[in-house]
Fold this protein.
Amino acid sequence: MSRLVVVSNRVAPVEEGKQAAGGLAVAVLAALKRTGGIWFGWSGTVVDGDTPQTPASAVHGRLTYTMLDLGRRDFEEYYNGFANQTLWPLFHFRPGLTSISRRNRAGYERVNGFFAAVLAPMLKPDDMVWVHDYHLIPCGRKLRALGCRQRMGFFLHTPFPAPEVLKILPNHRDLVEDLCAYDVVGFHTAADLRCFVNYVLLDAGGMVDPHPDGGVVVRAFGRTLLARAFPISIDTAALERTAETNARSRHAERLRESLVGRRLIIGVDRLDYSKGLPQRFEAFEAFLESYPEHRNRVSFLQIAPPTREEVPEYITLRRELSEKAGRVNGRFAEFDWVPIRYLNKSFGQRVLAGFHRQAAVGLVTPMRDGMNLVAKEYVACQNPQDPGVLVLSEFAGAAQELTEALIVNPYEVEGVADALQRALTMPVEERRERHAALIATLRRNDIGAWRETYVRALTKAPYQ
């Protein structure tokens, strides 16, 4: 069996006996434990001066973690700069927030080249290389330039923009050529795949043919590759067990007692402008305004851990949300009830599972999202006998699979308010029927199925 080499922006070593956090970590660890191999990427540490040339490695059984620190300049230009101020907003269809900088682009290329130069000597001829996400799009072509001919796959965890949006990037053609250096390129949804195919056909002069196993065979830039949608998922069975076990945990009991019989609406998101949090707060305000019978009977808990705190747009967003929550609470609160509980802190998976379990509504309304695993986690955590209702943005990749949720347009706050009313008044029979269909989808298409489908496609890829 070929060894698997996973390359991601961050490496997440897991101590023996501890649970991996996050869908990517779960999938990567399961795949690596089966085949043996290397998990390669940034350690998360930023050092003064230049990026150190020597990586640190740790071996756990057949798995080797190889991690690089980043110097301050590389961190600012590669990570904060091109990755998160250029690619992230553009890939989430927010061109107005996109910063174009030749210096940051050069830093992005430099760090990808550095990753490739360090990784190349570690590779064996029959290794399979699996690169993840927008931070490392050029890594495959950098490896090819160093003479690496191993099978290489790439998976994009964000949306892929329409060609008209992508071409805002001065180096848009280079970026698509970078993708074509891989043997398998994976996206979350058919819509993302379609955007990529449209660019290949209309702007790159490439050719596309259906593949018998799904997806399309792309011929462009002198390369032939498979491009396909591989919707990522969660460890459904494990999360179902976790939610049931933690339904009566200390944290869950504290939350339940604090509600004093009120029903709970929950949102769990990173503090990011793609998640639609300002519009979500406005929708909850419209809900209280339009349906006053729910005042003092419903509480909205929004958990939003800070992220990328050095980026100016995120500082502005945090201030905006605090102001909106304060305005709604000032308008509707009673001496014994606060409508919005807005928390800028993170909680572990077990605690969140207990919170999801008792929430009557899961409110997941991003303006644009590659998949959004929180939507799937909410469904998996529900009590099948008395399940809550998922209210889900049509612009989340998960909406393509979770069709029995209440699908909403997050830009229309009144429509989201109406969906909250419908969710809170839905008969239990309908809630059970919807949940049964949703959980069947998640059990069938779990994180293991995603991993196996992708690795199987990469295994079949021919050497080029």
